[in-house]
Write a structure and sequence with these properties.
It comes from Enterobacter sichuanensis. With 62 residues, this protein is an all-alpha fold. Helix content is 77%, strand content 0%. The protein contains 1 helix and no strands. The chain is rod-shaped, with a radius of gyration of 26 Å.
Length: 62
């Protein structure tokens, strides 16, 4: 059994694969940036909570 694949089909598949890999890399980078931003926000929120809970006059019985 012999298979024939047209060179234009191979080129199209290769181009699609390259584009897909590029898209994946871009999405990964964007996700990493958003993760770092979110981590900073969570750390700021945690510090804000810690500060409020340790301030004088906080009603601990509530």
């Amino acid at each position: 059994m012999e298979f024939r694949i047209d060179i234009s089909t191979l080129k199209e598949v290769q181009d699609t694969l390259i584009q897909t890999v590029g898209d994946v890399v871009k999405i990964q980078r964007e996700g990493a940036i958003k993760l770092r931003e979110t981590e900073k926000q969570v750390l700021a929120m945690r510090e804000n909570l810690r500060t409020r809970l340790t301030q004088k006059g906080v009603d601990h019985g509530a």
